[in-house]
Amino acid sequence: xxxxxxxxxxxxxxxxxxxxxxxxxxxxxxxxxxxxxxxxxxxxxxxxxxxxxxxxxxxxxxxxxxxxxxxxxxxxxxxxxxxxxxxxxxxxxxxxxxxxxxxxxxxxxxxxxxxxxxxxxxxxxxxxxxxxxxxxxxxxxxxxxxxxxxxxxxxxxxxxxxxxxxxxxxxxxxxxxxxxxxxxxxxxxxxxxxxxxxxxxxxxxxxxxxxxxxxxxxxxxxxxxxxxxxxxxxxxxxxxxxxxxxxxxxxxxxxxxxxxxxxxxxxxxxxxxxxxxxxxxxxxxxxxxxxxxxxxxxxxxxxxxxxxxxxxxxxxxxxxxxxxxxxxxxxxxxxxxxxxxxxxxxxxxxxxxxxxxxxxxxxxxxxxxxxxxxxxxxxxxxxxxxxxxxxxxxxxxxxxxxxxxxxxxxxxxxxxxxxxxxxxxxxxxxxxxxxxxxxxxxxxxxxxxxxxxxxxxxxxxxxxxxxxxxxxxxxxxxxxxxxxxxxxxxxxxxxxxxxxxxxxxxxxxxxxxxxxxxxxxxxxxxxxxxxxxxxxxxxxxxxxxxxxxxxxxxxxxxxxxxxxxxxxxxxxxxxxxxxxxxxxxxxxxxxxxxxxxxxxxxxxxxxxxxxxxxxxxxxxxxxxxxxxxxxxxxxxxxxxxxxxxxxxxxxxxxxxxxxxxxxxxxxxxxxxxxxxxxxxxxxxxxxxxxxxxxxxxxxxxxxxxxxxxxxxxxxxxxxxxxxxxxxxxxxxxxxxxxxxxxxxxxxxxxxxxxxxxxxxxxxxxxxxxxxxxxxxxxxxxxxxxxxxxxxxxxxxxxxxxxxxxxxxxxxxxxxxxxxxxxxxxxxxxxxxxxxxxxxxxxxxxxxxxxxxxxxxxxxxxxxxxxxxxxxxxxxxxxxxxxxxxxxxxxxxxxxxxxxxxxxxxxxxxxxxxxxxxxxxxxxxxxxxxxxxxxxxxxxxxxx
Length: 943
Hints:
By secondary structure, the chain is of the alpha/beta class. It contains 33 helices and 24 strands. An 8-stranded mixed beta sheet has the order 3-9-10-8-7-4-6-5.
């Protein structure tokens, strides 16, 4: 019989998912599948040598794949009799689980006809009208009191569950437990749970609050932009459920990221921001003493509310108009909070991201973020994604140009996140799937999506006229009575409410808005959070370069011993072994310290003093240029998840935490993540290193919108450290320049620090200074590549034990000050090339001064360095970069050099010629340019 089945059945190949589903039914109950299939699966079990039925699907799937190679397939069963109809029944169930969402009633505007999908029709499987009354085994389908039901009952249950107001997508999930969990929740209630009267009133109250606030603002502040939520009011219902259900499941914090659509509504009706405060912003009054500030629909907020599980802290992150860029920032903030709480289960802090339909599909940062969502250094235990699906994107979008996928949420399938599409005009369905989503996240620690299919009543903003480009859609919108009214009428019709209650809800809410207050304000006043961070010590602190960063020699030796202690039987690579041995010698004072040792000692000393350290980037464990080796690898390890050792985790008992993660191949999302992390944790040194400095331009939005301007716009302090390898070594346009000019162009209001250290002691003191001062500013470090092992780029132990970071390093060799007629100013690697040229040519009339901190510009230290040479008439700024790049234009335009120099000084520039590309790609041309730069710096002195 089995051979006959294999030869005649057309269920293989394209229908492998169905066969796997059949196999899952067999595992749950062998009697639920036809005898032929049961015999076949029994044989497979026997071949796999299984002692129990719950075995891996590998052998079965492999068998299906082999069958698929035999040729074309169909979906109709060729076997006869009742077995044929039973298998067809299970196929039908499977089809609805896969495709039922295509027939779901999702669009409130009802603009499209239901597509023809043959697989959802019983006739496709050979059923006739006479078969509707026949009884069949329902397999794994939930919701029936017995194992059998008539085809009519099964079909009705399938359509109620999968083709009502909810369209589910989850069958692509490879984890059977997760699929079964979703099926049990959806199918047991047929996709329509029974809510209590109190819950229905709560849902209507939330919908009423959302709509009434928007209409109130529309009439009170005519024509002002607010990016209304009208048409998508069920979003507030979803947010209410996230907080209510999440709190009941043990969550104590929710961090929210969203763009401008509906933001004001979430601020007021979810976080409890005072309407009076919002009205003040509409009237143009500054809410805080900020140098720049931001528009009202970008502002963040935080509050504490009560949930069934206790108090919950809510945070809405500040966000620019770059839509989805806030998403990795939220993830980083959540991760930091989880680390602070030691929340290893990742159940106490939930990230919630609210997307627009066009943005979630169109913005690449989402792919980057999803790609790291389950990795060790970036996974937050799953995110609840809410898509406010206006079905339009920007006003002028033509559906043919909107996206290439069927749904805007298809990107989430890359991480096998379940997706629940839901009609926004059914607030109960929205509440149900949102609760389901939160439960799924807490249970499985995975991303989950609620796609609220709704519409946008007004234009992209309140000054926009959508009818100009969307006449068909907006004729439908104008005819729509509104989600609140539809739901209110439904509750009145079913007897839940009296006819006058909905209007009374509106009136009561408006009366409170007139007073500048909320009808139901959930905010807890005076709540003291156990894990709150105190930013007070860092607020309103004047900028200073001073910090006592020195540590005793004995402590340096002790830290060196710990950094070079490798476990017994741990086999290092021969090159790494030599590096560790040399570092041990450095710690004993037998060798001068190199860059890698200076950097690692900085981390070790901070960890010993109680400051946690986190380092991330594409190759930070080893270091792109083979210098860091913060993570050691056993050369005899046999598995990926073993055989690594981090010396910085073993500095001393009770030390602060150390994290070092090689990131996914991403700049934008990872840098956004680290920014979010650093804004949530001021007492941790957070370092992101680009693989090459040039690659940071892939994260330009994060730099511009958050790191450089977050403090002036939102008052958000951030101590993030960014390391950018930089230096012209003939490696071409994308491996030379960290685009220093861009950081200098954005330098203002002491918004960040831009430093170019040239010695191991400098990087040691600079990293320690970043934490030991009561100043939290982003730090941009233009780090070297060739200097990491340069014989001149070394430091003594005393320079670590007695020194501090020098913003300017004056001339270090003994020159006769009276004979010096030219001072060459430089930064970075080129100093050592200038020094070598001067020595080789025995030049005595030219001094070399290094500017180690470009911003904030150290005017006093610079003036002191110049004053050492009273007879010098020429001051040369020498840079490797082309004239139009690097620091020159910024230094010249801001008058930083001229303001210090006297009238006797002549300021000159030596650089590569202005260029469109950061560097040349031909090695010979590079050498010629570099040689010219060095020689011109020492050219004839003009009297």
